[in-house]
Amino acid sequence: MNSADAEPTPDASKPLRARDIVVVGSSRGGVTSLPEFFSHFPAGIPAAFFVVQHLGAGSPGELDGLIGRRSRLPVSFAADGELVGTGRVYVAPADANMTLERGRVVVQPSPRESYHRPSINALFRSAAVAYGRRVVGVVLTGTMEDGVAGSWEIWRRGGLIVVQDPAEAYSPELPTRVRETVPVDYTARLADIAELVLDFATRPRRAPPVAGDFQARVMIVEDERIVAKSLENDLHALHYDVCASVLTGEAAVEAAGRTLSGVILMDIRLSGAMDGTQAASLIWERLQIPVVYLTAYADAETLASIKRTNAYGYVMKPYEAAEVHVALQLALERRDREQIT
């Protein structure tokens, strides 16, 4: 069994470990959806899967068999103290919580959470603490809200959250609640979720090309969704915490106080009545959050607008991830000096 508990020191010449810890939560309808979901994965995928399906005490212990009959991966109920290995599926047994520690599974009759044991929140939260950015949280069909708080914790620690399309889910309540509460990365149908997870597990991530001492929560203000998503992925690879991504200046002003970002990457020409420099000025006036501009324009009018604000940096599109990283590090270092003096 391949151990998944070693985290190598980042080396810019070598790929970092991919997102190889996949936690899956489902409730009503999951007994049907889980076998279908796992039927899409090839044998030997370099990821470990952990499943919580709400089961009442005394429920028949057949879920591992139901999933196993459709899965190319070995499936079994988890045992307390079992080592974490890739290429297999661990299922939480009835009336016990399954949580993760670094390198091993913990199965205990610990207290119920959100009226449930096994609890989705318990699994998701422990995975986020143990494995951080390596975690992908998958929320499938279900009722009530067990899984919402755990999804938030995964997102907060840099993991990815994927929810089943509520239009496809047997019970759309749980995926809908997660979407309403957490900045979900992807909403997709079962087959497409499996394809995403396979890509996350097999696509290597590179260490940041430039070193830097400052880590921060970054808000992205960009009205081109594709650019925003690409930038978010680059920032995650550079070990920044993307706390929000918004499309307009008005949304940036509203989100700045709520998300407590440490620095903002701001496009200048935005959708809506408020451009990036106007939004940056308001945010600085109210909250003193540094802004680094990211724009395709370098004309005299744009530069004059930037000079009228307390700009901490400026990066031209098309950007390189290293350029953004350097600009953020310089902005954070400047802000750190200002706060000291």
**Residue runs with pLDDT of under 50 for 5 or more positions:** 1-16, 206-211
CATH homology group of the largest domain:
Methylesterase CheB, C-terminal domain
Rg is 22 Å
The CATH topology annotation of the largest domain reads as Rossmann fold
Ends apart, CA distance between termini: 54 Å
Shape: elongated
Strand content: 15-25%
How do the SSEs run, as a string of H and E? EEHEHEEEEHEHEHEHEEHEHEHEHEH
CATH architecture of the largest domain: 3-Layer(aba) Sandwich
Q: Helix segment count? A: 11
Overall number of structural domains: 2
InterPro entries: CheB_C, CheY-like_superfamily, Sig_transdc_resp-reg_Me-estase, Sig_transdc_resp-reg_receiver
Active site: 27, 54, 146
Domain CheB-type methylesterase: 15-204
Modified residues (4-aspartylphosphate): 267
What would you say this structure looks like, in words?
- Strand 14 (263-266), helix 9 and strand 15 (291-295) form a beta-alpha-beta unit.
- The N and C termini lie far apart (54 Å).
- This protein has 2 domains: 15-202, Methylesterase CheB, C-terminal domain (Rossmann fold, 3-Layer(aba) Sandwich); 210-340, Rossmann fold, CATH 3.40.50.2300.
- It has 341 residues and is of the alpha/beta class.
- The chain is built from 11 helices and 16 strands.
- Mean pLDDT is 86; it is low at 1-16 and 206-211.
- The strands form 4 sheets. Strands 4-5-3-2-8-9-10 form a 7-stranded parallel β-sheet, sandwiched between helices. Strands 13-12-14-15-16 form a 5-stranded parallel β-sheet, sandwiched between helices. Strands 1-11 form a two-stranded antiparallel ribbon.
